[in-house]
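Local shape tokens

___
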Amino acid sequence: MSFTSNVPSGPLEQKWTKYISEIKLVSPANKRKFQVIVVGTGLAGASASATLGELGYNVKTFCIQDSPRRAHSIAAQGGINAAKNYQGDGDSIWRLFYDTIKGGDFRAREANVYRLAELSVKIIDHCVAQGVPFAREYGGLLANRSFGGALVSRTFYARGQTGQQLLLGAYSSMLRQVKTGKVRLFPRREILDIVVIDGAARGVIARNLVTGELEAHSAHAVILATGGYGNIYFLSTNGMNSNVSATFRAYKRGAYFANPCFVQIHPTCIPVSGHYQSKLTLMSESLRNDGRVWVPKDPKDKRPPQEIPEKDRDYFLERLYPSYGNLVPRDVASRATKLICDQGKGVGPTGYAVYLDLSDAIKRDGRDVIEKKYGNLFEMYEKITGVSPYESPMMIYPAVHYVMGGLWVDYNLMTTIDGLFALGEANFSDHGANRLGASALMQGLADGYFVIPYTLGQYFASKSLIEINESHKAFEEAKKEVFESIQRLLNIKGKRTVSHFHKNLGSIMWEYAGMERSDQGLTKAKEMIAQLREEFWQDLFIPGSVSEFNQTLSKAIRVSDYLEFADLIVEDALNRRESCGCHFNVAFQTPEHEPKRDDENCAYVAAWEYQGRDKPPLLHKEPLVFENVKLGIRSYK
């Protein structure tokens, strides 16, 4: 087990080039001898599976859905960043690097972020070659638009369905390898344990969601690309199957978990409409390119928004942040929206919404132009709310969307368990305390297409691995532990539904560990979570049996992990004695209600080590050293 970042020496701009020119390689003939497990088929997992299969490795790929195409990456709408500077507006790899570091409130590792910016240009070329239908200008050149936290247009997009189109590209590449036999797909599987032998990850325990059967799968390395844990808040923009179980089980096996309290709240989501709602819907950040966010200046003004004249509107983001206006980063826009609504200036039935208005853009550019850019988003909004954004402003409010926390990884994307790698949203590595819009797709594809093929080879070439298979006693022991944990859930035989406990946990997390936090609230949350966890293990009801398609059981397994993982989020939030990015503790703020960092004491990655059931986790700190960027106040005014 190693807790060193393994960042190469040398100038920042040369680290990755130097690294890939000096690493040990595995010959094509020897690649056939290695078995790799990839968990997840979103952009990170699908691209990794496709590339590793193409290189000659034998890959087993697991997904929780019936089809890899249903991975949550498909829901990404707005675009993918790349420092191509096609607009000639001053963009560069350095500017994308700096914007990402600053956007994350200076809480990310410089070397990893620069590599991401450097690889961004290759991603676009690769995806165009695959046939991804990016939007183009009239003359045929690729089009760009702006996203939050940037003063340039660097975001490539495919209308409002960029994630879907990118995933189809990665999926088709992966299916090509399935056809050749280099990749084997295992759909409808959930990973419930990582098998560690002699300190190295050597396989997984998977549950077949259709039959309930537990399966053991061995490999020489395991790659987790399982996404984030935003669903711990119950209401989020995440797909309903998104969960923390695979990464949390890895944490329990010895992988450190980094910055779990860094949870991103997206400012433009359709507001909560009722008590029985099970998820929320994102309205792409790209809408803030042409949309303006406002509320009536007079909180008592109840006129329809179309009837409120310009002079009676408060475009509060433009007023508070004149340089960036409506395109401030997500955490900044979310806090400003919450503050406006807390002051009683919100709109809609609950008072917890603001207007996102594209009427100026429709008048300026014409409905046809706006429809080409955002048509599917407008259709989605109208289907959900019954209101056409062409005729009336959208109503939006912040919601949980993404997590910057994840398994701690080094420069090679390897966790503290040898041979266990984490890609995309499952790791912590690139976004610090706040992710800029259109950077998740960039990270997922960079990790899968361009980083893991090199770093995995380096691992195999540097380590001598004994041959093992599923008959090894470690697999039987792990399978037995998983079986007993499932039986424990089934034997509770209480009266409450899984959703009852999940919803209550989500309410606690949103209230006390959401957009705004306090020591008093976080301490209260710890007590409430412990009480709820006790009730869960005494009064949970799961119908059906283990040996059938049992969605309630599947959800109960995930919620049981959430009830433990929630403690880690709260502990991390309490321990970080500053406000930064999305982590806003009211005790640490400027007079303007902005986060107040403590660079002297808190410029570190918090990496938590599991110590056992009912024991507090152990905190390790990776110091963040900034040799190329000058730490400064993160201002968007």
Remarks:
- The first helix runs from residue 15 to 22.
